[in-house]
Write a structure and sequence with these properties.
This protein is mainly alpha-helical and 177 residues long. It is built from eight helices and no strands.
Length: 177
């Protein structure tokens, strides 16, 4: 394998590694990690850079793999639900990136739509998985988990990710991925 396929696999491994390691930045303060959402950043960027299939796979495996290797997040229900959410992020950023023009404005449109879709998927997965486990999941829990508690991470994503993607676009580093 050479060319774009090799590059995409190498980048997928990089984004997976970042998804596994970035939560260590907030690991000593778990409440901070659940607010800054460090695992989300590499998955969202992966979808932009590598496309929807790679973004989906990296998003799907990162939380479960991290749970199995490091014990955090807890496998059930957190890592399982996060797998659906992050898979949606990776898929959506890659899909919308492909659909929309490659302009700076559409980097923001793609990111915002992807973040909304991922949060809806997180809510649906939480409702189903917690429902099967005999636990409740309310509208209030959805709003708190998806938006209120995550607000610092949402802001971080809206500030950091467009800067990274626009810089990568300007440098033309990933045109052939």
């Amino acid at each position: 394998m050479t060319g774009p396929t090799t590059k995409r696999l190498a980048l997928a491994a990089l984004f997976l590694a970042l998804g596994l390691l970035m939560p260590f930045l907030t690991g000593q303060i778990p409440a901070l990690g659940s607010k800054l959402l460090p695992m989300h950043l590499p998955v969202l960027i992966c979808g932009f850079v590598c496309g929807w299939p790679t973004g989906l796979v990296v998003g799907l495996i990162t939380p479960v793999f991290r749970s199995l290797v490091f014990g955090m997040p807890p496998l059930f229900p957190t890592a399982v639900v996060m797998s659906f959410e992050l898979a949606a992020y990776g898929f959506a950023t890659g899909w919308f990136r492909r659909l929309f023009p490659k302009t700076n404005a559409f980097v923001y449109v793609t990111l915002i739509l992807s973040m909304l879709l991922g949060r809806v998927v997180w809510g649906a997965a939480s409702l189903l998985i917690l429902g099967f486990a005999g636990r409740g999941f309310t509208w209030k829990a959805f709003m708190a988990g998806a938006f209120v508690n995550a607000l610092p991470g949402i802001i971080l994503q809206l500030v950091l990710i467009p800067v990274v993607i626009i810089a990568l676009d300007r440098a033309k580093l990933f045109d052939d991925v």
